[in-house]
Amino acid sequence: MTQHTILIVEDEEIIRTTLREFLQGEGYVVDQAASVTEALEKVQRYDFDVAICDVQLPDGDGVGFMKKLHQFNPQTFVLIITAYATVENVVEAFKAGAFDYLVKPVIFEDLKRKLNRLFRYRELYSENQALRRELERQDGFERIVGSSEVLKSTLATIRKVAATNSNVLLVGETGTGKELFARAIHTTGPKQNEKFLAVNCGTRPVELLERQLFGAATNTGGGDDGSHPGLFRHAGNGTVFLDEVTQLPLGTQSELLRAIEYQEIMPVGGSEVVRVNARIIASTTRDLEREVGEETFQEDLFYRLDGVKIRIPPLRERLDDIPELVEYFIEKHTRSMGKRVTGTSSETTRLLMSAQWKGNIRQLDNAIERAVMMCDGTEIQPEDLPPELLGVGVALPDSDDLRSALRHYEKMHITRVMRQCPDKREVAKRLRLGLSSLYRKIEELEIES
């Protein structure tokens, strides 16, 4: 049975030593730190299940440390130790992400009870996450919305690749949904019942990233050699998805190349290689050939990954999918917000179809979420969309008639300026119109003030 690891962050040596001895007697693997600086050094090197942290420390406070800790390892639970359990500091601790709190002097039975509750909760949370991953695995292609020809062509390629066990490289702009396509490859592949594990290659320090990928043979001071297997071993015969693979440091790229070529890895701090059998799906928003030319990406790794490459099309190349995507996101966000938005007005649809969507599907999702939130009726209107989106594209007119198109654009332009500036005199000045001319335009174009 794997032992749970606990970090004690406390500047008072007597309390620190007493807690350590008690927890070790309960069977936990315990490490300790006397300051925020020392504690941060340890959490960057090791993953702890729990941190027990004093509110007041010589070089900072427990709440501030907790926020930094969760940047390195969001899975670590925190118990705050406080001398005075006032409502204010307890609320602050909970807001920062503390699981519970202890009052000095710490009562061991209270600590034992709260740790037991914490680990029960942690077990249920892990089971819940596993069930969610299983449901996502069952979704497959159903979660990829759209019926445009370019999307159909991409999915046809993915189905052929998914049937094999080959490693795959997904290339596409930010926000195109590369992880969604990676999951589709996994869930329709021969090992769909195995695990799918994803990691962003640019979000952590090198040491933590390599530890997360390849595991670690070192421990936290109590012989816990098997507690950090790493994603490649944890995935088993499943899939490891490496998001933004070009952000891997050169040294880590060499380790990844070994995993691909020889199906073996070297755990951090280890002296013996470990066999692995996970499928690798990598993604990037960058030009890999250029990265190789600039010597920031290994040429051998490039050829290994570039063998099966699939380009994920940006939203501007699949505009026919926008109505379906909008319907999907409206249903998604109305369900979560408890609202009764059923669709978009024709003017809103034309505006959405003509926008540039530099952020692709992710930007569209965010725009619809905001629109559902702001919508007062059952149909999303242009004014419900993010203000910056109104300047991205020009809504399409109802007909091909030039005068109609000019009138439509004039109405959109004046409306946008009026939203930015409530003072009609200032609006007229910015439009280089007389005030009386502005009021005439508002009446002619039926613009709501």
Structure notes:
It is a single chain. With 449 residues, the chain is α/β, with parallel strands linked by helices. It has 3 domains: 5-127, Response regulator (Rossmann fold, 3-Layer(aba) Sandwich), CATH 3.40.50.2300; 144-313, Rossmann fold; 317-444, Helicase, Ruva Protein, domain 3 (Orthogonal Bundle), CATH 1.10.8. It is built from 19 helices and 16 strands. The strands form 5 sheets. A 5-stranded parallel β-sheet has the order 2-1-3-6-7, sandwiched between helices. The longest helix has 32 residues, at 108-139. The radius of gyration is 28 Å and the shape is globular. The protein starts with a strand and ends in a 5-residue tail after the last helix. The model is unreliable at 220-226 (pLDDT under 50).
How does the SSE layout of this entry go?
Layout: E1 5-9, H1 13-25, E2 29-33, H2 36-45, E3 50-54, E4 56-57, E5 60-61, H3 62-72, E6 77-82, H4 87-96, E7 100-103, H5 108-139, H6 149-162, E8 168-171, H7 178-187, E9 196-200, H8 206-214, H9 231-235, E10 239-243, H10 250-262, E11 264-265, E12 274-275, E13 279-284, H11 288-293, H12 299-305, E14 309-311, H13 322-337, E15 343-344, H14 346-354, H15 360-374, E16 379-380, H16 387-390, H17 402-420, H18 424-431, H19 435-444
Parallel strand pairs: 1-2, 1-3, 3-6, 6-7, 8-13, 8-14, 9-10, 10-13, 15-16
Antiparallel strand pairs: 4-5, 11-12
Helix pairs in contact: 2-3, 5-7, 6-7, 13-15
